[in-house]
Amino acid sequence: MTARIGVVTFPGTLDDRDATRAVRLAGAEAVPLWHNDGDLKDVDAVVLPGGFSYGDYLRAGAIARFAPIMEKVVDGANGGLPVLGICNGFQVLTEVHLLPGSMIKNEHLHFICRDQTLRVENAETSWTSEYRDGEEIVIPLKNQDGQYVADDYTLDMLEAEGRVAFRYVGWNPNGSRRDIAGITNERGNVVGLMPHPEHAVEAGFGPDSRESGRTGTDGLAFFTSAIKNLLATA
Amino acid sequence: MATILVHVMPKPEILDPQGKAVGAALPRLGFDGVAQVRQGKRFELTVDGEVTDEVLAKVRQAAETLLSNPVIEDVVEVTVAQEPA
């Protein structure tokens, strides 16, 4: 069996092609899903990619959350469907209340694009099980509205329940509370993060690694994690 | 036709990077003495017919669900715009 992973395109999504490529390189079939679709085409998992859905009008992710496909994504997620939200996809997941908190403008107001070191804080989610707890990875980060905020009660809850999935290491690039780069839901099937694993999946096109330039593929394990977990439960 | 105004502001406890940047630019233009700037949004919703309590209730609901994100923003005011004289 081959796992089928859906990649949603909203008007203004930019990284759907890269996410599709990452899914294929990891060994699954990538299924394109359109924002206006009323069904998930029987996919086994869903990726909400980065970009500027609906031009980021109103708030990042605020309009995408009401797209017809999102109703199905929410139903699926509540039933255990693995869902990964990257950058704008993470913003959509917070707007639709699958994940707590929200993203506001970077503290320094600048758009930022860099290779970012993250620490994997929870290697037991659907999208992180191929990492080790505490493992440091490098994947690209590029955003304007990347400052993760939530009230102290929510932040304490996330920490206590081990739901901080990734933290920025070395430098907090956007002022995110408690250096949080990504979080997961209670069940561990929904993960959202600001940095972009799908841009670090093939040597020659990724971040610099210790060995040589552009060879970093630290993002691939997001997708191989999901595939392995899907095949294990199939 | 009547117009309903909805004002949305970042929550007081949420840092407002845009307001901060505007605040930093004011003295450069010679506008001194402004201690703090916070930037929000104003929506103008023009509706068909009269503004009844029911219409206002619906707009308030829209303001809470779409026009603002209650995690980071407050709806500070929903009012009916005065007709121009």
Mind explaining what this structure looks like?
- The complex is a heterodimer of chains A (234) and B (85).
- Chain A is an alpha/beta fold.
- Chain A has helices spanning 16-26, 68-78, 88-95, 152-160, 220-233, and strands at 4-9, 29-34, 45-48, 83-86, 102-104, 112-120, 136-143, 147-149, 164-168, 180-184, 190-193.
- Chain A has a single domain (4-233), classed as 3-Layer(aba) Sandwich (Rossmann fold).
- Chain A has a 9-stranded mixed β-sheet, with helices on both faces. Chain A has a two-stranded antiparallel sheet with strand order 5-8.
- In chain A, helix 2 (68-78) links the parallel strand 3 (45-48) and strand 4 (83-86).
- With 85 residues, chain B is α+β, with helices and mostly antiparallel strands.
- Chain B has 2 helices and 3 strands, in the order βαβαβ.
- Chain B is 28% helix and 28% strand.
- Chain B has a single domain (2-80), classed as Phosphoribosylformylglycinamidine synthase subunit PurS (Mth169, Chain: A), CATH 3.30.1280.
- The chains are: A alpha/beta (234), B alpha+beta (85).
- The interface between A and B is medium-sized, with 20 and 12 residues.
Q: What brief labels describe this structure?
A:
heterodimer; A: 234 residues; alpha/beta; Rossmann fold; 9-stranded mixed sheet; two-stranded antiparallel sheet; B: 85 residues; alpha+beta; Mth169, Chain: A; 3-stranded antiparallel sheet; 2 helices; 28% strand; elongated
What's the level 1 CATH class of chain A?
A: Alpha Beta
Q: Which architecture of chain B does the CATH hierarchy give at level 2?
A: 2-Layer Sandwich
Poorly predicted residue ranges of chain B: none
- Biggest sheet architecture of chain A: 9 strands, mixed
Can you tell me the CATH class of chain B?
Answer: Alpha Beta
Instruction: Classify the oligomer.
Output: heterodimer
The tally of beta strands of chain A, per DSSP, is: 11
The CATH architecture of chain A: 3-Layer(aba) Sandwich
CATH topology of chain B: Mth169, Chain: A
Strand count, sense and closure of the main sheet of chain B? 3 strands, antiparallel
What percent of residues of chain B are in strands? 25-35%
Percent of residues in helices of chain A: 10-25%
Report mean pLDDT of chain B, rounded to a whole number. Answer: 93
Strand content of chain A: 15-25%
Count of domains of chain A: 1
- Given helix and strand content, the structural type of chain B is alpha+beta
Can you count the helices of chain B?
A: 2
Secondary structure: number of strands of chain B: 3
Helix share bin of chain B: 25-40%
Order of helices and strands of chain A: EHEEHEHEEEEHEEEH
Q: State the CATH topology of chain A.
A: Rossmann fold
